[in-house]
Specification:
Elements: H1 6-24, H2 31-55, E1 66-68, H3 82-94, E2 95-97, H4 100-116, E3 118-119, E4 122-123, H5 127-138, E5 142-144, H6 153-170, H7 173-194, H8 198-205, H9 208-217, H10 228-248, H11 254-262, H12 265-272, E6 289-291
Antiparallel strand pairs: 1-6, 2-5, 3-4
Helix pairs in contact: 1-3, 1-6, 2-3, 2-4, 3-4, 3-5, 4-5, 5-11, 6-9, 7-8, 7-10, 10-11
């Protein structure tokens, strides 16, 4: 049912952010590319779900639907495309391209990563991030503009409010706090060392893209470590390497590359600190259900 799933709120908030950005910011985003991203994500999700179901391999990547096992008949799966729509909105907010084929490549690779890169039926790449990196690495006309949202304080307040409500529901505040807390501390130490004024510091932190990443991408509960201590260590490590790449190697998109590089390490983190895996439909256990 609508708004019974926290992902419904994610879809609403991300859609509003997209509308807000187009109407208030001078973006190079074209409406037709948004349509391409959404259509490609939904189509790829549907096709790969059908293939995986036909092969009897179990879960779609984000646990979209859970059906109790029946000895009498197999249930007909209800088409659920929430996660694909969230991925497409994330790509539309962060990725820019000159050609529709580039956006289609990013969207298709983002969804495919959920089905291909799995360990114990859990995908470890954030889909939107995987799509962004695929487009940056494989095409000449894709880019991410970290400063596209500007540094206006009310953008940050809006993102924090919307993201905070979702994080409270899914219980992943620790990840955002660990990332933003450690990253802001490192930037503060550098600012003091260089003797810069504090307006420079706030300018570097009050980036809409950074807040979107911290609130909606690094906190994806289906692709990050399961245990709280694992998530904190993981997020702290991402903050350190993002700080190094951004300030000493001058990589403006460092945060996306670091998340991509660290994604496979969630397998090791989950091995070191064992904890129950997150499920959007947490009232049913994996052992007592069939995930499609």
């Amino acid at each position: 049912m609508l708004l019974k799933d926290i992902r419904d709120y994610q879809i609403i908030f991300l859609s509003l952010f997209l509308i807000l950005g187009i109407s208030t910011r001078d973006w190079t985003l074209r409406p037709e590319l948004i349509g391409v991203a959404i259509a490609t994500c939904l189509l790829t999700q549907w096709l790969l779900s059908q293939v995986k179901q036909g092969w009897g391999l179990g879960a779609g990547s984000k646990g979209e639907e859970i059906y109790p096992i029946s000895t009498h008949h197999s249930p007909i799966p209800e088409l659920n495309l929430r996660s694909a729509l969230i991925t497409s909105l994330g790509l539309s907010l962060l990725l820019r391209a000159d050609h529709w084929t580039t956006m289609a490549l990013a969207a298709a690779s983002a969804i495919a990563s959920k089905f291909v890169f799995q360990v114990n039926n859990k995908h470890f790449f954030n889909p939107a991030n995987f799509g962004i990196i695929s487009a940056l690495a494989l095409t000449p006309d894709a880019w991410v503009s970290p400063g596209q949202w500007g540094e206006e304080w009310w953008y940050g307040l809006l993102f924090a409010g919307a993201g905070g409500m979702i994080l409270q529901r899914i219980g992943r505040w620790d990840t955002t706090a660990a990332f933003l807390g450690s990253y802001s501390l490192l930037e503060a130490m550098r600012n003091l060392w260089l003797g810069w004024t504090w307006d420079v510091y706030w300018h570097r932190l009050m980036s809409g893209s950074l807040l979107l990443f911290a609130l909606f991408m690094i906190t994806d509960p289906r692709s990050i470590p399961n245990a709280r201590i694992g998530r904190i260590v993981w997020a702290f490590s991402i903050a350190i390497f993002t700080f190094i790449l951004r300030n000493y190697f001058f990589v403006p998109t460092a945060v996306f590359w670091v998340l991509f590089a660290f994604a496979p390490l969630t397998i090791l983190v989950d091995f070191l600190w064992s904890a129950p895996r997150f499920s959007w439909l947490g009232e049913l256990s994996i052992q007592d259900s069939k995930i499609i």
